[in-house]
């Protein structure tokens, strides 16, 4: 059955309001005067109520221009096709990298092709996409941005040794170089206990004219606002054995008969030397009354029961 729309149209055109989008309609028109109503003139075919244009196409893939510790700035190109009707705005969506769920960002359409997404979580990784809209509705989403980690570009980054110190052997009288490579933001301060040189991220300690006294564990410490890191190594200096005879042993020593005799003679040399101790051509290392202890700093001779022999 037909539903009357109006009886007051005085012209040959009329706009019919309140049609339902997507519904199919037939229309008919009748002329009226004081003598009555004409036969109806029917529409030649059914008409579907819809806009004369479609939703817009996909916008260009968004570019991420600026990243802070809680926001990003996006910009994008307009769709190649607006669907035949003017674009009324853009919708921005985000998702975390391990999620399939896209979440709306803006509560009302963005009127430009730039937008700052705020309230993001630092150290999280996100993707973003854009949807254009006109009076026909929302179009298809753009391609997503590349994965973007939310991080303040000016934030401090703790030092990290990409090349650590290595245990090093050298020869007495020569130069020993210890080298490490460290990165960090801002550039870390370096602490040694010796003079160093620096070449970019490389830190070099040069031990000139090395002696056995330089045998030790060495530490480099890198520090900045983000924290600190250390790297360690051991340095060994190869050198021939040299005795450092204390003054008291440079004269005659007197002991009581039967008293243990302990003689400690400091020496330098690396690696540990083999020691042979003789008296009157006799090898004392085979004497059961004699013991010899060799440490990395001294040789200790102990005669358990001293006598004149």
What report would you give on this structure?
- Keywords: Repeat.
- By secondary structure, the protein is mostly beta strands.
- The protein folds into 4 domains: 1-50, no CATH class; 63-149, Immunoglobulins (Immunoglobulin-like, Sandwich); 157-239, Sandwich (Immunoglobulin-like), CATH 2.60.40; 244-303, Immunoglobulins (Immunoglobulin-like, Sandwich), CATH 2.60.40.10.
- It is built from no helices and 27 strands.
- It has strands at 24-25, 28-29, 32-33, 36-37, 41-42, 47-48, 63-67, 72-75, 87-96, 103-104, 114-117, 125-134, 137-138, 148-149, 157-163, 168-171, 176-185, 189-191, 196-199, 202-207, 216-224, 227-243, 261-270, 278-279, 282-283, 290-294, 298-303.
- The termini are far apart.
What would you call the shape? rod-shaped
Q: What's the CATH class of the largest domain, please?
A: Mainly Beta
How far is the N terminus from the C terminus? Answer: 142 Å
| Main beta sheet strand tally, sense and closure | 7 strands, mixed
- Estimate the mean pLDDT confidence: 87
- Write the element-wise H/E pattern from the N-terminal end onward: EEEEEEEEEEEEEEEEEEEEEEEEEEE
Number of helices: 0
InterPro entries: FN3_dom, FN3_sf, Ig-like_dom, Ig-like_dom_sf, Ig-like_fold, Ig_I-set, Ig_sub, Striated_Muscle_Regulatory
Protein name: Titin
Keywords: Repeat
Domain Fibronectin type-III: 1-52, 58-153
List the helices and strands and how they pair.
Layout: E1 24-25, E2 28-29, E3 32-33, E4 36-37, E5 41-42, E6 47-48, E7 63-67, E8 72-75, E9 87-96, E10 103-104, E11 114-117, E12 125-134, E13 137-138, E14 148-149, E15 157-163, E16 168-171, E17 176-185, E18 189-191, E19 196-199, E20 202-207, E21 216-224, E22 227-243, E23 261-270, E24 278-279, E25 282-283, E26 290-294, E27 298-303
């Amino acid at each position: 059955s037909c539903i009357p729309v109006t009886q007051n149209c005085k012209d040959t055109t009329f706009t019919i309001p309140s049609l339902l989008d997507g519904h199919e309609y037939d229309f008919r028109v009748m002329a009226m005067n004081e003598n009555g109503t004409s036969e109806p003139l029917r529409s030649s075919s059914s008409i579907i109520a819809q806009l004369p244009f479609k939703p817009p196409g996909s916008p260009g893939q968004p570019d991420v221009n600026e990243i802070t510790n809680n926001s990003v700035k996006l910009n994008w190109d307009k769709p190649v096709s607006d669907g035949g009707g003017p674009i009324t705005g853009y919708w921005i969506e985000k998702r975390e990298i391990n999620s399939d769920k896209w979440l709306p960002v803006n509560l009302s359409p963005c009127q430009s092709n730039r937008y700052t997404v705020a309230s993001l979580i630092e150290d999280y990784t996100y993707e973003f996409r854009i949807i254009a809209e006109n009076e026909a509705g929302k179009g298809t989403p753009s391609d997503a941005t590349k994965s973007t980690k939310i991080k303040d570009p000016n934030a401090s980054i703790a030092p990290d040794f990409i090349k650590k110190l290595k245990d090093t052997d050298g020869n007495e009288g020569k130069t020993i170089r210890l080298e490490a490579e460290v990165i960090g933001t801002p550039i870390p301060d370096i602490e040694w206990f010796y003079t160093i040189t620096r070449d970019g991220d490389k830190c070099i300690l040069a031990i000139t004219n090395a002696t056995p006294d330089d045998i030790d564990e060495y530490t480099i410490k890198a520090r900045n606002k983000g924290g600190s890191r250390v790297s360690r190594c051991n340095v060994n200096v190869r050198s021939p054995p040299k005795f450092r005879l204390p003054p008291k042993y440079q004269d005659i020593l007197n002991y009581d008969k039967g008293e243990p005799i302990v003689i400690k003679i400091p020496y330098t040399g690396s690696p540990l030397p083999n020691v042979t101790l003789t008296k009157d051509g006799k090898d004392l290392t085979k004497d059961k009354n004699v013991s010899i202890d060799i440490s990395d700093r001294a040789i200790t001779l102990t005669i358990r029961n001293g006598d004149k022999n």
